[in-house]
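#struct-queue
[09:14] JT: dropping the first one here, sequence first, then the structure tokens:
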Amino acid sequence: MKKYIVVFMILSLLLYACEQTEENIVDVQNSDIVIETIETFDNNGRGIKVDKSKAVIYDGVIMPEIPKAPPNSYDIAKTLSYQDKWFRTEAVYYPRFTDEIKYEGSEKIKQYYAELAEEQEGYINNISISDEVYDDYFNYHLYTYVTYDVIFFEKYLSVLYFSVGYYGGIHSFDQYWADNFDMTTGEILKLEDLFGYEYMYREILQELICKNLLIQYDEDIFFENPYEVPNIMQNIYDSRFRITEKGIDFIFPTYAIAPYDAGNIFVTVPYEELSEILLMEIGE
């Protein structure tokens, strides 16, 4: 008799779970479910929390509302549905410069973003859904949003991108990266352009980054003292820095040196501290 009771309970739970999965697929426009905040930019490119917005929940996964495109943007967005149910959203924004860049390299920079937007639009428009892939994608790739922030400083342009998406697991994933341009040439700058070959700057820059991490953050947020992190510089490469008015920001992605709750870690090294290794005239 006990065996029958156990079997009945298991079947009841399975049936309940199936019903909940179906009920938890909520239309974006008509949802009453509210998410408290999502992360976006403040004026300095730091992560901040924005106003409440409607959301979709699928098996406990929250999809925030599509962020508004910044002014003068390439606006590339697409929402996919399958059998009248919401399935996947992609929204990507890139800067569309007009008269902001008054240097010789302006046309090259504009062309770079025009081509990037065209490539991204082609990718999004070619996303298709079939019975074979529906179940996998529906569970593991619900949304991707990419927006940006722009800094003009001296003859340099820094475009910081922020991406947030859900790809499976217990939470969304966000990351920052940057393109830094010399506006006189239109070329994207690399660490090598700023500091020379790695052996010329690695030891000094590592010391400056670790020192400023402990100045700008409480040591308790890190997995361990930055000075004790093996190969900490492996997280710093050409798209993980940006040029600002105060110094150069270096970006550590989520989980690199701190838990998920700490997010991406930005550390600013002032120009005066970089004078010994900086090859370019910035912030003088």
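[09:21] JT: and here's the second one, same format:
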Amino acid sequence: MREKPKLTKADQERFLKQKRETDAKIGRVKRGLGQNARETDKFIFFWMGDSVYSNFNFSPFKHQGIQFMWSEQAVMYRKAMLFGATEVAKEILEADTPSYCKLLGRSNDIPFKEDVWQKNRKRIYKEVLMDKFSVPFLKKCILATGHKMLVESSPSDRIWGIGMHKDHPDVEDPKKWKGMNLLGQVLMEVRDELRKQEETA
């Protein structure tokens, strides 16, 4: 019987390196991180649509009996409905990109009041994201992040994000963040509720 060729030390090291890289990629997929996210031992920094935590990520789900393609679409629909702008809400349902949904959500046809929105925005986001992350695959993703802090590292958003890019030198120091990270906060609340549901099921 022909003997199998023995792997050299260099071959073994190359194989182990490839395995580590493959395992890391699989782990990122399982946590829904996408290519643009950055992960540390304490934080998960995400931004843009390739991460499931972004409102621009294509993640079909049902909310209030309506099918939505992106959580941005659902949030902007709820925003329009909050102010009674039903025609704008219809347009949002027909929108073909999350960017257009966001634009419609800022329409002058919505009789927007800042105080009303501030009072209701986190509740609306949480209701939307609870439905989104109740989809089995997405639920597995968010629960797989454990207890790490979820952070929207948008350099241009100081309300839902932190006003910093993931590679900013101060990004790992929450005291130096330039934004409130409301999206990250809501996502972590959703994660906690989903975890409790799993534990009591």
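[09:30] RK: nice, looked through the second one.
[09:31] RK: The first strand starts at residue 38 and ends at 39.
[09:31] JT: good to know. The first helix runs from residue 9 to 30.
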